[in-house]
Structures are given as structure tokens and as C-alpha cells.
Fold this sequence. Notes:
The radius of gyration is 18 Å and the shape is elongated. Strands 3-2-1-7-8-9 form a six-stranded parallel sheet, sandwiched between helices. Strands 5-4-6 form a three-stranded antiparallel sheet, with helices on one face. The chain is 28% helix and 18% strand. By secondary structure, it is α/β, with parallel strands linked by helices. The protein has eight helices and nine strands.
Amino acid sequence: MKKNLVFLTGAGMSVESGFSTFRGNNGLWDNYPVEQVCSHDGWLKDPDLVTNFYNNLRRKLWKGQPNKGHQLIKDLEEEYQVKVITQNVDNLHEKAGSSDVIHLHGELTKVCSSYDPYNPRYIEELTPENSDVKPGTKAEDGSLLRPFIVFFGESVPMIEPAAQVVMKADIFVVVGTSLNVYPAAGLLQYAGTDVPVYLIDPHPPVSSGNRKIVTIAKGAVDGMKELYQILMKDMPE
């Protein structure tokens, strides 16, 4: 039986695909205060601005391609039962072919009801050919279509399913995200105490508490290359 290999990925996973982190230098929000384009108050104040902001972001996404790190995560499915939990709203894991992905913070490729964002009846999948949402467009429940994004200050409904996945992990890997940002960082506590934990980050935190973590101080691509060799070497012959 294949071991359960669980990944938690963050913004650093996509940087080498040309996607800036939201908060770093030249970040995606450099020209807009976060509260203006990624908060419920910002949406209520100017939904047209928010809609157009995500339309523009979505156009960039369609052109993006997964990097070698994304591909190696997918390739590990040959030997492991791989599940990906991502904080990213891009679809690069899916483009690489990963078959089991949980998006904690929503998906840029989707729009939803403003009244009931997680009701599957009102979630719409967009395509490159039908990507832009005209400001004022309404969902089937009569509310404005909004980005299927977890705005700051909103709850993260997928955190509980993600925690259930981590509880079953035989190996837990964190790539490109700080272990200091909650609620995602709290997922580490759901991994069994005997479960090996790897952290891939060029700037890992100085301390990770009492938990023993194997740190690979590299970017996502080089870090995943090293991890791939480690995990494949540990496979029984």
C-alpha cells in the first residue's frame, strides 16, 4: 500500500513560475492596499474595482505554467498517495497534473455568490475563453458574482478537511510558506508525532518549536529536486 504523502504549499511554490508573492517586493498587491481588493469591506465598497482586479489577475494566470517543483510533486504520485493542500489561488498544481488538491484560500479560476460563497450551486468555473466577469454580473441567487477567494477576515472552510488529510499523513512536507502564518501553520499540529516533516524554504524560520523538522533551505524547484531524491531513495526495492 502506498504511503500518504501530504504537501502544504504556499506562495513560494509559484514564484518560480513567474507569480509574485502577494506581500513581497513587486507583489501582486503593490498598487492596491490589501483591504481594498481582498477584504469583505473592500468588496462592499467597490465591487467593480475588485471584479476588475481579479479579471486582470486571472489573465496572467492563464499564461502561467507549472514549474519543475509542481511537476515533481505530481511525479511522486507514482510511488505515493499524494495529497496537496495549497494556500495559493492559482491552478498550477492542477496544470501539472496533481490529482488531489485542496485550496485553502479559494480558486482564482472560479466565481461564486456574494450571499453564499461556498454553495456549489452558485460556483462557476471560468475558462481562458470566458475569463472576464463583467462588473454587475449576478449569480443565479440574484447576488453579485464575486471572486471565489477567501477574503481577509473571512473563515477558511477548507481548513477542517485539510486537517483530516494531515492526520492521515505518513510524511508531511511544507513548501514555500511560513510556519508562522495561521490558520494554515496550525495544520502541522495534526501530523502524528512520529511523522517525518520536511520544510522547503530559502529562508526557514529560526525555530519551529519542539517539533523535529528536516529543513531544506532552497527554493521550491531546487528543494523539490532534493526532496524527490530523498523520498525515492527511501522507497523499498
